[in-house]
Amino acid sequence: MASNNGSREQWSGKFGFILASIGSAVGLGSIWRFPYVTGENGGGAFVMIYVICVLLLGLPVLLSEIVLGRSTQRNPVGALRKQAPNTPWFMGGFIGIIASIIILSFYSTVGGWTLYYTWEAIANGFHQLSINGIEAKFGSFISNPATTVIWQALFMLLTMGVCIFGLQNGIERTNKFLMPLLGLMLIILVIRAVTLPGSGEGIRFILYPDWSSVSITTIFEALGMAFFSLSVGAGTMITYGSFLSKKESVPSAIGNIVLFSTLVSLAAGLAIFPAVFSLGYEPNAGPALVFITLPSVFAQMPIGSLSAVLFFFLLSMAALTSSISLLEVPLRYLEDEHQLNRKTGTILTGGLIFLLGIPSTLSFNILSDTKGLFGLTIFDSLDFLASNVLLPLGGLIVILFAGWKWGMNQVLREARGEDGKGLPAQPFWVFIVRWVTPLLILTVFAFQILSSL
Ligand code: PFF
């Protein structure tokens, strides 16, 4: 592990940081959550609003988080405390920590599903199953409480294992090989999906905006999705930024993170919706969507069995590179602020998050009738609370801090690397960070609250 003159551990270089950040951003959010939320929100119009939210809301928060982390070399709470001592700003860091804990709790449910599907693809394959058979397979897996909790436990153990190995050995190595492979696999899947008979309707569904389906809830969902898919608002990027050497310039790293995470989401949509329409599934099938649609595509592909193994393996790894970034947030807080050692911290936090995640897993079987917020299941309630409320709230606090308390001059200066390369079009970004992003987040919040009264 490289250390900075014996002080804070660092990424091996900019490439390591970019890959780890892309690894955090690209995960179940892009490949599993984005398609089903798009399906539930009417398709193309949602996709367009999502892209606007990524650029106008997600990107400025991403910039502020990375710069804040890099300049303070601290966890989210410590970073805000260092820059604004004796003020309540640090509470924003706690919102991030709570968000990351809640997200990881239900993320591990689906992480477990991806591991099980990898195993199924290896052991039995999907090729001999009919479309109904594939749906039934998902149904029978998901309705078994013991099996689903065991796979969830395995996913959490893997996450904790990588975190114990630390930054370069664990997180960097895992990312370097797997991300490019996942990209390649997705391209192959898109090609297969768009050449299925009758795929045109699916392509139209995701690319053609039908504005009549847009409501304030659509915008609210798109905002949450943008934050979720970029990993912002939970302090992850403050934490990852804190390991970035001051030599590197931040803007180019940000461009890469935004570009890849958005492209992967769009590619996942293009791989899934043509298949949904071609094979006669419902686009609003919810969290099951990827797990029933893609196995059917594999069943119709040459070397489909091998592709299914590869895809679900890579999907589990993409989930893992995101879950380690989520676990890293509370871990670094405990290490920095309470001097807890990494191993104890990982076991304590990981164990606790696993326990917290069990009700989410069980909400697909024995707890399916237990309702939480707004009559949603436990899983959906936690997802709603974390993705649609805590992430935008955490992001709002960081962006207000960057634009108004810390100051844009400082942010822009800190964003530069040794080569002096700063952000292009600075006056534009200053305006966006100070006015556009906070006001848009506040407006969406206000309308959502008013509409649910
Ligand atoms: N961005 C990850 C994904 O799309 O799967 C999920 C995530 C990671 C959300 C880290 C938030 C976060 F802080």
UniProtKB/TrEMBL annotation:
Keyword terms, alphabetized: Membrane, Symport, Transmembrane, Transmembrane helix, Transport
A GO CC term attached to the entry: membrane
Annotated TM spans: 12-32, 44-68, 89-110, 149-167, 179-199, 219-241, 253-277, 297-327, 347-367, 387-407, 428-450
Main location: membrane
GO molecular function, one term: symporter activity
Topology of this chain in the membrane: Multi-pass membrane protein
Cellular localisation: Membrane
Domain of life: Bacteria
InterPro entries for the chain: Na/ntran_symport, SNS_sf, YocR/YhdH-like
PROSITE patterns: NA_NEUROTRAN_SYMP_1, NA_NEUROTRAN_SYMP_3
PANTHER family registered for this protein in UniProt: TRANSPORTER
Family under the similarity heading: Belongs to the sodium:neurotransmitter symporter (SNF) (TC 2.A.22) family.
Protein name per Swiss-Prot or TrEMBL: Transporter
